[in-house]
Amino acid sequence: MEWLRSLLTEHSAMQAVVVISLISTLGIGLGKIRLFGISLGTAFIFFVGILAGHFGLSLDPAMLTYAESFGLILFVYALGLQVGPGFFSSLRSDGIRLVSPAIAVVLLGTLLAVGLSYAFGVSLPDMAGILSGATTNTPALGAAQQTLLQMGQDTSGPALSCALTYPLGVVGVILALAVIRKLLVRPADLPGPDAEHSKNVFIASYRLTNPAVFGKSVHDIAVQSHQHFVISRLWRDGRVSIPTSDKTLQENDIILVIMTPGEAESLRLIFGEQEQKDWNTENIDWNAVDSQLISQRILVTRPEINGRKLASLRLRNNYGINISRVYRSGVQLLATPDLRLQLGDRLTVVGEQTAIRNVEKILGNAVKSLNEPNLAAVFIGLILGLTLGSIPVSLPGISVPVKLGLAGGPIVVGILIGTFGPRMHMITYTTQSANLMLRGLGLSMYLACLGLDAGAHFFETVMRPEGVLWLGLGFLLTVVPVALVALISLRVQRLDFGSVAGLLCGSMANPMALNYANDTIEGDNPSVSYATVYPVCMFLRVIVIQVVLMLLA
Predict the structure, then answer these.
(1) Does domain 196-369 have CATH number 3.30.70.1450?
(2) DSSP 3-state assignment of 316?
(3) pLDDT (tens digit, 9 = 90+) per residue, 429-460?
């Protein structure tokens, strides 16, 4: 058995791979165990690494640094690439109502952490770890460690304090949601399963009764109204058609309009009488709405279409079809003429069957062609992200230049490439499973190495008086911002509890708490709200924690 001992303990590249894989495997298995309906998931890898480090398992220092850094880079870049398409859209329209309180959670928690640091004599590096653990945000911890390395300071303290407060951060948000629901939530605050703002598009039908639009073309009305909408179908004298941009509207025409949420009333004033039929339920059979047209989703798989504006394809005028919605990275987008298509987009196309077949040939709709990932875009993104992260930026009042570092640079570039890459005809598409694989692999490597690094002195820290203090401070950093923002969101902003729960989970980067919210709140508002605020808050935490350390540490 000497060979097995040497495989696990003698420093080498093979030993590093075996140890990281073993820790990750055990952590993933234990993370599936649920206690009182709560599980730590992938985060359990962190604690298995701590135990391994406590019992003397170690890696070559250079190998440990490489694996930890590469894992963090891979995780944050893949995360940025995934959330990029919906990042900037979350800052517009109704997203601001959700993003604003979520940003308040981040800033309030950071200010509270700085105040508690001075009040209780805890060093800012240790407090950065406490804050990262209390908010279950390992990328923020990675950013803090990289900043401390640039400043020539020790990074073991933040890892220890993060490991200590992380479990309470997971449980604390869930407990806070349960208490908030018990004390503050009224029946009117609970959303229904089909709440209108849970969708990114809204569908309504109108009977034209406004004389101001009689005889005008669809294009003229769109230009003069400055509203964003798509007319999917038009009924006239019992016949249905696809209205082109030059189609003139007449009195008593019935039109089916797809718009952004909240614009139904504005368009009612333009078109006339809104019909009572609910077109937004999930169980509508669109192919049964009328016998002359069919509705089909077509997948964009031809590289030549990547980055092209929808209007430039002239599909409506050439083939007599209409594109009403675009599904991208789990987000439903309105198919406006200036929308740039990306590889992997799913387009809802309405028209006659022959025309839809022709459109299929143009867009691709070949699922197999997307199975092969474009690795060049991944490596180019990593290079650009690390380059951006290494650029020093001098800020007034800070002696050391600020850098985005290993965590900040790749996530910024990932978001930018995910958003704007197609405009440069850069194929950034990865399947959901491929992106999750990259993120999972990177996060597992990072957490395993982080746990090994912190494990040697973890338990002796817990037994010291400051260990109990760190736990108490971490609990305050978890609960206080969540409770205050929840109160304001429910009573001042009048948000429903489902949206509030989702934005709190997203601002705290806590998917385990989101699972609890989805299990206890009807409808999909928690998930929609979480997806809206998560990218903004993740980016903000990575940047803010570095600035605080640069200014005050």
Answers:
(1) yes
(2) helix
(3) 666 667 778 878 888 888 788 788 777 777 77
pLDDT in tens, 477-522: 999 999 999 999 888 888 888 888 888 988 887 766 776 777 677 7
Radius of gyration of the chain from Cα atoms? 26
The CA-based angle 533-503-83, given to 5 degrees, is: 25
Helix (H, G, I), strand (E, B) or coil at 510: coil
Greatest extent of the chain over all pairs of C-alpha atoms, in Å: 91
Class of residue 375 by CB neighbours under 10 A (exposed 0-12, middle 13-18, buried 19+): exposed
In the chain, where the domains are located: 2-192+376-552, 196-369
Cβ neighbours around 537 below 10 Å, total: 21
CB atoms within 10 A of CB 477: 28
Hey, what are 504's tokens? 């709190």
- Nearest CA to 503 out of 530, 527, 480, 522 is that of 530
Q: Treating both helix axes as pointing N-terminal to C-terminal, what angle do 405-420 and 138-150 enclose, rounded to 10 degrees? A: 130
DSSP H helices, 36-94, are: 44-54, 61-87
Per the structure block, which two tokens stand in for 22?
């073993």
pTM over 0.85? The answer is: no
Placement of tokens 């005809």 in the chain: 425
The two tokens of residue 515 are 């699972």
- DSSP state, residue 327: E
Distance CA 53, CA 457 (A): 8
Q: How far apart are CA 449 and CA 434, in angstroms?
A: 23
Express each pLDDT in 344-381 by its tens digit. Answer: 788 888 888 888 888 888 888 776 655 666 777 788 88
463/303 Cα distance (integer angstroms): 59
